[in-house]
Amino acid sequence: MFTGIIEELGEMVGWTATGDDSGLIAIRGKVVVDDLKHGDSISVNGVCLTAVEISGEGFTADVMGETLRRSSLGELHPGDPVNLERAARLDSRLGGHLVQGHVDGVARIVGREAAEQWTTVRFELPAAIRRYVVEKGSITVDGVSLTVMEAGDDTFAVGLIPTTLSLTTLGHKQVGDLVNLEVDVIAKYVERLLGERS
Predict the structure, then answer these.
(1) What class, spelled out in words, does domain 105-196 have in CATH?
(2) How far apart, in whole angstroms, are the C-alpha atoms of residue 106 and residue 95?
(3) Would you say the C-alpha torsion 156, 160, 164, 166 has a positive or negative sign?
(4) For 23-75, how does the pLDDT look when each residue is reduced to its tens digit (9 = 90+)?
(5) In Å, how far from its chain's centre is CA 68?
(6) Start and end of every Lumazine-binding domain (predicted)?
(7) Predicted local confidence at residue 8, as pLDDT
(8) Same fold for the domain at 8-86 and the one at 105-196?
(9) What is the mean pLDDT of the chain?
(10) d(CA 193, CA 164)
(11) 183: three-class secondary structure by DSSP
């Protein structure tokens, strides 16, 4: 479980194929490896991965075909920045919202509008998750916990403050780039529970 508060802007270093549709991704991130251990969960652009090897300022993680098909990790190239967050601890503050690291959809950025102190970014809204995205609700974009400013039929928008722009990949991403989306898990549980009652 994560909070969506990015700890470090890391870097994708390399990819080693381990099968027809799987591989080992190498990530540089000197902050997150400080106490990272083999088998620990770590969020990479909003995708929960398991650390395999930790050395120096980086780590590797297995990525299977299912993860590549359901996320944008397969689009990464060496040198690309990535959002990194270690799993939340029960004795820490919940600064964002409850994030599982399970991607619900991939979408493209369709617009960016810079203001003096913040930037509005608009994303595609995949039909499969439309019902979970509401104005003032929480959404995770590339692992970043954000508040939805506006939710339409086909798009949604968020506002990014300077800190988010400078400390996450969202400051670098441009129109046309892909992002990983995760909706609020509580909404999915409520829907399931209410559906079973009817």
Answers:
(1) mainly beta
(2) 24
(3) positive
(4) 999 999 999 999 999 999 999 999 999 999 999 899 999 999 999 999 999 99
(5) 14
(6) 1-97, 98-194
(7) 96
(8) yes
(9) 93
(10) 35
(11) strand
CA-nearest of 51, 10, 3 to 30 is 10
Closest by CA to 70, choosing from 25, 109, 154, 128, is: 128
DSSP string, 152-163: -SSEEEEEE-HH
Q: What is the DSSP string of 15-44?
A: EEEEETTEEEEEEE-TTTTSS--TT-EEEE
Q: How many residues does the chain have?
A: 198
Q: 87 — alpha (psi -120 to 50), left (phi > 0) or beta? A: beta
Residue 97 predicted with pLDDT over 80 = yes
Task: Residue 101: name the closest of 144, 51, 159, 165 by CA.
Answer: 144
Kindly report the CATH class assigned to 8-86.
Answer: mainly beta
CA separation (Å) from 4 to 1, 31, 44, 145, 164?
A: 9, 16, 11, 4, 11
Q: Domain limits of the chain?
A: 8-86, 105-196
Residues 8/32, Cβ–Cβ less than 8 Å: yes
